[in-house]
Amino acid sequence: MFSELVAVGTKTGVQVFDLRRGTKVAAGTGVGVGGSQGFALTDTWVATVSDAKAMCHVHMLNRGDTGAKLAFPLPEEITCVHAIDGGRYLAMGARSGRLLVWAPASGRLLRSWDGHYGAVTALASSGGALVSGGEDAAVHVWVLSQALDADADAPPAPIATMADHTMPVTALHVGALPLLAGRGRVYSASRDHTCKQWRVRIEGSDDGDAEGEDGIGGSGGRVVLRGRTELLTTLLYPAAVRSIVVDVPETRVFAATAAGLFQTNLFRPVDGLSSGPALVALGGTSGSVVSDEHIAYPSAEADIACVALSLDGSLLASAAAAGGVVRVWDTASRQCLRTLSDKSLPAGVVQLATRLAPPQLGGPHATASAGLLRPAVLTETVIAPKLSEISFVPLQRVMQQRGQPAATAATAAATSAAAPGSSAFDAPVRARLGNTTEDVRAFEAALGCAGVYSETSRADAALVQMLRPADGSAEKQIAELVRQTERLQRHHARTRRLNDELYQGAVSEWLASRQKR
């Protein structure tokens, strides 16, 4: 059985529990979670933004570590944060309606742009697409490759917009199918008591007006992505929807509302057909409004703040808006299995998030092996050590120009801030994307090859042929390395056993001398 974690965000910090056992495995205290999407969780760190001031705190996911590893200011007040691609990028939404994307490994601010007319309230991602919702009741789909292109003359524009909500968007969920593949679905919840299911179709076309080296397409133009949205179903709930989660097959929607916890099955069986029972989709047209198909959890509190679902969809975690009660439910029977309790939870739970446990918190352990033989002495599990290094750098407040030192960028930002009508955040310092043509030329120059790339590949093939064993058999060398490794493992085991015997003998002799006294 795999291990899963549930992270609980409160006004005092983030508490991490084992979802199936209910035991507390990690914590990050000292700063409160700002809102319904106030922290981002990865395998190694937790990034938290506060609603009190424009600050970001980063905690490491280790047992016993509670203090923040990093703390740094942000350009403006942030309302939501989201980790993209396992933490490779970090997206944030501001109260001013701006969207910001950083690279945590370098701390560089890659791009910032105006996305909404009000505060950004929810973020989600799917592959190379970023989905945002705001207080202007709009949901936008952005292509990251276009949004992060600092060389573009115009600001980023969404490829698809969904604007059927009448009140601010509170939560977003993107289906398992990637949006850029053209068959993805987006679920948006709002204070207007609805949860809408959208189909987003992405299509590519050649832009004949765009010409140049960077253009791709049949006519030398650049491929432009355009999206078409279709409203499939509107789920109407008795109160404002605060949080939603959808299982991986996209057959059930779980909603946390001010009137309780509800489950909606998106497919229902239909009898009487010649071929036997079948499943039909709930709703399916833009005019369909579903209001009587919701299944309530009778034992849940009357006011639910947030929900989170396990990977297999068998367990559901919910948090009450008042009292700090976090319950774990069995989705098949809708029975409460356990209640997570901790002295910091009564401060109020505002966000829940689940993910597979990393090795340092009880997840799958690494296995030492060599080749396909896997000798018995090498199949021992290696317990993952405590993380000591973190791949997270304090995020920069301004964008840094490519090849320019950070100090120079900061000086340019300060100079721009001194100009009338400008600020440090709006400094005209732009991050430029790399030129692949120049990179290939630099690669060939480093190899000392003056020819084209095909000649370089042939030179590499010749080098590999020279390194091949004389007898043409690498399997023998691999087998010999496996035997030597096995001998070293046995020698290490004997040395360790001898060391333990010497230690026990020394301790016994010392205890005997103490007893004689």
Keywords:
Methylamine Dehydrogenase, Chain H, 5-stranded mixed β-sheet, 4-stranded antiparallel β-sheet, 517 residues, 5 helices, alpha+beta, 37% strand
- Would you tell me which CATH topology applies? Methylamine Dehydrogenase, Chain H
CATH H-level superfamily: YVTN repeat-like/Quinoprotein amine dehydrogenase
Task: Return the domain count.
Answer: 1
How is the main sheet built? 5 strands, mixed
CATH class group? Mainly Beta
Portion in helices: 10-25%
Which secondary-structure class do the elements indicate? alpha+beta
Q: In order across it, which strands form the biggest sheet?
A: 16-17-18-19-25
Judging from the principal axes of the Cα atoms, what is the shape?
Answer: globular
Structural notes for this entry:
- The protein is α+β, with helices and mostly antiparallel strands.
- It has a single domain, classed as YVTN repeat-like/Quinoprotein amine dehydrogenase (Methylamine Dehydrogenase, Chain H, 7 Propeller), CATH 2.130.10.
- It is 17% helix and 37% strand.
- The chain contains 5 helices and 33 strands.
- A 5-stranded mixed β-sheet has the order 16-17-18-19-25, with no helix packed on it.
- Strand 20 and strand 21 form a beta hairpin.
- It is globular and about 90 Å long.
- The two termini are 54 Å apart.
- WD repeats lie at residues 113-142.
- It comes from Coemansia erecta.
- One of its GO terms (biological process) is DNA-templated DNA replication.
- This is Pre-rRNA-processing protein ipi3.
- Keywords: Repeat, WD repeat.
